[in-house]
Write a structure and sequence with these properties.
The protein is mainly alpha-helical. 65% of the residues lie in helices and 0% in strands.
Protein backbone atom coordinates (compact mmCIF):
# COMPACT_ATOMS: atom_id res chain seq x y z
CA UNK A 1 0.00 0.00 0.00
CA UNK A 2 2.77 2.40 0.96
CA UNK A 3 4.68 1.73 -2.27
CA UNK A 4 1.53 2.50 -4.30
CA UNK A 5 1.28 5.83 -2.51
CA UNK A 6 4.94 6.64 -3.13
CA UNK A 7 4.51 5.68 -6.79
CA UNK A 8 1.54 8.05 -7.13
CA UNK A 9 3.47 10.76 -5.32
CA UNK A 10 6.47 10.21 -7.60
CA UNK A 11 4.29 10.56 -10.71
CA UNK A 12 2.79 13.79 -9.32
CA UNK A 13 6.24 15.22 -8.65
CA UNK A 14 7.39 14.22 -12.14
CA UNK A 15 4.36 15.97 -13.64
CA UNK A 16 4.96 19.20 -11.69
CA UNK A 17 8.76 19.32 -11.67
CA UNK A 18 10.72 20.63 -14.63
CA UNK A 19 11.64 17.81 -16.93
CA UNK A 20 15.17 16.46 -16.81
CA UNK A 21 17.15 15.68 -19.92
CA UNK A 22 16.26 12.18 -21.07
CA UNK A 23 19.57 10.63 -20.09
CA UNK A 24 19.45 12.04 -16.55
CA UNK A 25 15.89 10.80 -16.20
CA UNK A 26 16.85 7.36 -17.56
CA UNK A 27 19.81 7.07 -15.18
CA UNK A 28 17.59 8.20 -12.29
CA UNK A 29 15.12 5.37 -12.93
CA UNK A 30 17.88 2.78 -13.30
CA UNK A 31 19.56 3.94 -10.08
CA UNK A 32 16.21 3.80 -8.29
CA UNK A 33 15.97 0.12 -9.25
CA UNK A 34 19.51 -0.67 -8.15
CA UNK A 35 19.00 1.38 -4.97
CA UNK A 36 16.12 -0.94 -4.07
CA UNK A 37 18.51 -3.89 -4.01
CA UNK A 38 21.06 -2.02 -1.93
CA UNK A 39 18.58 -0.73 0.65
CA UNK A 40 15.90 -3.39 1.01
CA UNK A 41 16.04 -6.22 3.46
CA UNK A 42 12.58 -7.61 2.64
CA UNK A 43 13.14 -9.62 -0.52
CA UNK A 44 9.98 -11.67 0.05
CA UNK A 45 7.55 -8.86 -0.82
CA UNK A 46 6.29 -9.18 -4.41
CA UNK A 47 7.80 -6.89 -7.01
CA UNK A 48 4.37 -5.37 -7.60
CA UNK A 49 4.61 -3.88 -4.07
CA UNK A 50 7.74 -1.97 -5.12
CA UNK A 51 8.36 0.86 -7.57
CA UNK A 52 10.44 -1.38 -9.83
CA UNK A 53 7.69 -1.97 -12.43
CA UNK A 54 7.02 1.76 -12.82
CA UNK A 55 10.75 2.54 -13.09
CA UNK A 56 11.15 -0.13 -15.80
CA UNK A 57 8.16 1.28 -17.67
CA UNK A 58 9.59 4.81 -17.43
CA UNK A 59 12.92 3.57 -18.77
CA UNK A 60 11.14 1.99 -21.74
CA UNK A 61 9.15 5.15 -22.41
CA UNK A 62 12.35 7.21 -22.33
CA UNK A 63 14.08 4.87 -24.80
CA UNK A 64 11.10 5.02 -27.18
CA UNK A 65 10.89 8.82 -26.88
CA UNK A 66 14.63 9.15 -27.47
CA UNK A 67 14.42 7.02 -30.60
CA UNK A 68 11.54 9.12 -31.96
CA UNK A 69 13.57 12.31 -31.44
CA UNK A 70 16.63 10.94 -33.26
CA UNK A 71 17.31 10.30 -36.89
CA UNK A 72 16.81 6.78 -38.15
CA UNK A 73 19.55 4.40 -37.02
CA UNK A 74 21.17 6.89 -34.66
CA UNK A 75 21.74 5.59 -31.12
CA UNK A 76 20.94 8.07 -28.39
CA UNK A 77 22.64 8.56 -25.03
CA UNK A 78 20.04 6.53 -23.09
CA UNK A 79 20.41 3.54 -25.38
CA UNK A 80 24.18 3.94 -25.18
CA UNK A 81 23.89 3.94 -21.39
CA UNK A 82 21.75 0.78 -21.48
CA UNK A 83 24.30 -0.97 -23.70
CA UNK A 84 27.47 0.33 -22.08
CA UNK A 85 26.36 -0.38 -18.50
CA UNK A 86 25.05 -3.85 -19.39
CA UNK A 87 21.62 -3.14 -17.96
CA UNK A 88 20.06 -6.06 -19.83
CA UNK A 89 22.64 -8.41 -18.34
CA UNK A 90 21.87 -7.11 -14.85
CA UNK A 91 18.12 -7.42 -15.45
CA UNK A 92 18.62 -10.99 -16.66
CA UNK A 93 20.43 -11.81 -13.40
CA UNK A 94 17.66 -10.23 -11.34
CA UNK A 95 15.02 -12.09 -13.35
CA UNK A 96 16.81 -15.40 -12.97
CA UNK A 97 16.94 -14.93 -9.19
CA UNK A 98 13.27 -13.82 -9.27
CA UNK A 99 14.02 -11.51 -6.39
CA UNK A 100 11.76 -9.89 -5.37
CA UNK A 101 9.15 -12.49 -6.34
CA UNK A 102 7.70 -11.62 -9.74
CA UNK A 103 10.90 -10.00 -11.02
CA UNK A 104 11.29 -12.64 -13.74
CA UNK A 105 7.89 -11.63 -15.11
CA UNK A 106 8.91 -7.94 -15.07
CA UNK A 107 12.21 -8.69 -16.83
CA UNK A 108 10.50 -10.77 -19.53
CA UNK A 109 8.02 -7.94 -20.07
CA UNK A 110 10.81 -5.36 -20.27
CA UNK A 111 12.77 -7.37 -22.84
CA UNK A 112 9.62 -8.06 -24.88
CA UNK A 113 8.57 -4.41 -24.94
CA UNK A 114 12.11 -3.21 -25.62
CA UNK A 115 12.56 -5.51 -28.61
CA UNK A 116 9.04 -4.77 -29.84
CA UNK A 117 8.99 -0.98 -29.47
CA UNK A 118 12.51 -0.01 -30.50
CA UNK A 119 12.85 0.10 -34.27
CA UNK A 120 16.65 0.15 -34.53
CA UNK A 121 18.27 -3.30 -34.64
CA UNK A 122 19.27 -4.21 -31.10
CA UNK A 123 20.07 -7.91 -31.40
CA UNK A 124 23.41 -7.39 -33.19
CA UNK A 125 24.73 -5.66 -30.05
CA UNK A 126 26.65 -8.09 -27.88
CA UNK A 127 25.16 -6.52 -24.73
CA UNK A 128 21.72 -7.35 -26.11
CA UNK A 129 22.00 -10.74 -27.79
CA UNK A 130 23.96 -12.37 -24.96
CA UNK A 131 21.40 -11.62 -22.24
CA UNK A 132 18.58 -12.40 -24.71
CA UNK A 133 20.21 -15.76 -25.37
CA UNK A 134 20.49 -16.43 -21.62
CA UNK A 135 16.86 -15.44 -21.10
CA UNK A 136 15.82 -17.82 -23.89
CA UNK A 137 17.58 -20.64 -22.02
CA UNK A 138 15.91 -19.59 -18.79
CA UNK A 139 12.50 -19.85 -20.47
CA UNK A 140 13.00 -23.56 -21.05
CA UNK A 141 14.19 -24.51 -17.57
CA UNK A 142 10.82 -24.97 -15.84
CA UNK A 143 7.65 -26.23 -17.47
CA UNK A 144 4.28 -24.62 -16.68
CA UNK A 145 5.78 -21.68 -14.80
CA UNK A 146 3.68 -18.75 -13.59
CA UNK A 147 5.54 -16.67 -16.20
CA UNK A 148 4.60 -18.94 -19.11
CA UNK A 149 2.59 -16.24 -20.95
CA UNK A 150 5.42 -13.71 -20.65
CA UNK A 151 7.92 -16.34 -21.80
CA UNK A 152 5.81 -17.07 -24.90
CA UNK A 153 5.47 -13.36 -25.70
CA UNK A 154 9.21 -12.88 -25.30
CA UNK A 155 10.05 -15.87 -27.51
CA UNK A 156 7.55 -14.67 -30.13
CA UNK A 157 9.14 -11.21 -30.34
CA UNK A 158 12.60 -12.77 -30.65
CA UNK A 159 11.29 -15.00 -33.46
CA UNK A 160 9.71 -11.97 -35.15
CA UNK A 161 13.04 -10.14 -35.03
CA UNK A 162 14.81 -13.18 -36.48
CA UNK A 163 12.19 -13.38 -39.23
CA UNK A 164 12.80 -9.70 -40.10
CA UNK A 165 16.57 -10.22 -40.26
CA UNK A 166 17.41 -13.93 -40.71
CA UNK A 167 21.16 -13.31 -40.47
CA UNK A 168 20.61 -12.60 -36.75
CA UNK A 169 20.08 -16.31 -36.14
CA UNK A 170 23.88 -16.63 -36.24
CA UNK A 171 24.02 -14.86 -32.88
CA UNK A 172 21.93 -17.63 -31.34
CA UNK A 173 23.60 -20.70 -32.81
CA UNK A 174 25.80 -22.50 -30.36
CA UNK A 175 28.64 -23.78 -32.48
CA UNK A 176 29.81 -26.20 -29.81
CA UNK A 177 26.60 -28.18 -30.25
CA UNK A 178 26.82 -28.52 -34.03
Amino acid sequence: MFSKFTSILQHAVEALAPSLPLQEDFVYHWKAITHYYIETSDDKAPVTDTNIPSHLEQMLDILVQEEKERESGETGPCMEYLLHHKILETLYTLGKADCPPGMKQQVLGFYTKLLGRIKQPLLPHINVHRPVQKLIRLCGEVLATPTENEEIQFLCIVCAKLKEDPYLVNFFLELGLI
